[in-house]
Amino acid sequence: MAEHDEPVLLPHEDLPVVEPGVPRPARVTEPMTRERSITLAAGFKALGDPVRLRLLSLVASHLDGEACVCDLVGAFDLTQPTIIALPSVATR
Questions:
Q1: Is 74 helix (H, G, I), strand (E, B) or coil?
Q2: Is the pLDDT of residue 27 over 70?
Q3: DSSP 31
Q4: Closest to 68 (Cα-Cα) out of 51, 92, 84, 86
Q5: How far is Cα 60 from Cα 5, in angstroms, rounded to an integer?
Q6: So what's the pLDDT on residue 87?
Q7: CA 40 to CA 32: how far, in whole Å?
């Protein structure tokens, strides 16, 4: 089990049914700091673009989590230089 002894769901498993009125432990144990919220917001903003989000999912779904741009070009109606530039724009 994980560090907190919570079960891990596999991709093919459904979330367990939660009965109404049954208290559940909080998933967040303390509020995030201002600095952490700024960092996360920047990441969410970068992934807020549908093309970047799809690009991330295509790369992540490859066996090693790596993909050649030549494998990605066909999935988009964009040129190869544009696809190459998307991750660098997202990290600014």
A1: helix
A2: yes
A3: P
A4: 84
A5: 27
A6: 64
A7: 10
Cα 62 to Cα 2, 24, 75: the distances in Å are: 25, 36, 14
Contact 84, 69 (CB under 8 A): yes
Q: Cα angle vertex 46, ends 15, 53, to 5°?
A: 50
Q: How many CB atoms lie within 10 A of CB 5?
A: 6
pLDDT in tens, 43-68: 888 788 888 888 888 888 887 777 88
Quote the tokens at residue 90. Answer: 């997202």
CA 83 centroid distance within chain: 18
**Which residues neighbour 85 within 8 Å (Cβ) at sequence distance 6 or greater?**
none
The string of pLDDT tens digits covering residues 67-86 is 887 778 888 888 888 877 76
Q: Is 42:35 a contact under the CB 8 Å cutoff? A: no
